[in-house]
Amino acid sequence: MYLYVLLGMIGPWQIVVIVALALLFFGGKKIPELMKGLGQGVKEFKKATRDEASGIANPQKELEAKSDSE
After folding, report:
1. Considering just the CA atoms, what is the radius of gyration of the chain in Å?
2. By the 8 A CB rule, do 59 and 67 touch?
3. Burial classification of residue 31, based on how many CB atoms lie within 10 Å of its CB (0-12 exposed, 13-18 middle, 19 or more buried)
4. pLDDT by residue (tens digit) across 16-25?
5. What is the DSSP string of 18-61?
6. What is the pTM for the complete model shown?
7. Is-contact 55 47, C-beta < 8 A?
8. Given a cut of 90, is residue 44 above it in pLDDT?
9. CA neighbours within 13 Å on the CB side: how many for 26?
10. Domain locations in the chain as residue ranges
């Protein structure tokens, strides 16, 4: 139970420690590059899931698109 309380609650001091460690580990110039890459990855993931969901919702359109390209 005590372990759950320690791992379940992240307060402002824990966030400050995590940010400080990230600055020490990666440096101030590298963090914006890492965040940009992370943002692009999330964007691509959302696009892929949206494309996949629309393909499942409209399988006929997907088949027509494949037959038109051939």
Report:
1. 22
2. no
3. middle
4. 888 888 888 8
5. HHHHHHHHH-TTHHHHHHHHHHHHHHHHHHHHHHHHHHHH-HHH
6. 0.47
7. no
8. yes
9. 14
10. 2-69
